Amino acid sequence: VRKQRPSAFYNTNLEILLRRSNADHLIMFGAWSEVCLETTVWDAISRDYRITIVKDACGTATELMHMTAMLDLANWLYAGSVITADNLKKALEGMPHKAWRFDRPAAFAYTLENVKSLYNSL
Length: 122
Known about the structure:
Layout: H1 14-20, E1 25-31, H2 33-46, E2 50-59, H3 63-75, E3 81-83, H4 85-92, E4 100-101, H5 115-121
Parallel strand pairs: 1-2, 2-3
Antiparallel strand pairs: 3-4
Helix pairs in contact: 2-3, 3-5
């Protein structure tokens, strides 16, 4: 899918492709965590897709920007989860794995002092 805006859904054929394949769960990762990835995740959620974010397969200009983007997403990731690439591989192979799963809004009230520990808890 070629995109021209932050969201991969905006003015692309992504949703058509996903609907044709009967997708309901998207595994998401990519560049510019706080812009492109985040905007695409919000658009996917508003279209009722279940989301899994691969937190260590995303990135942006700084570590703090990435960590706060992941925490922002986790705070509102209804019916979603956050996982590492290693644990995603295990999950896809049907092996035991760890993943953080959304259970309530605004679970991560982060500050500059605790952002790293909260991010690591995902």
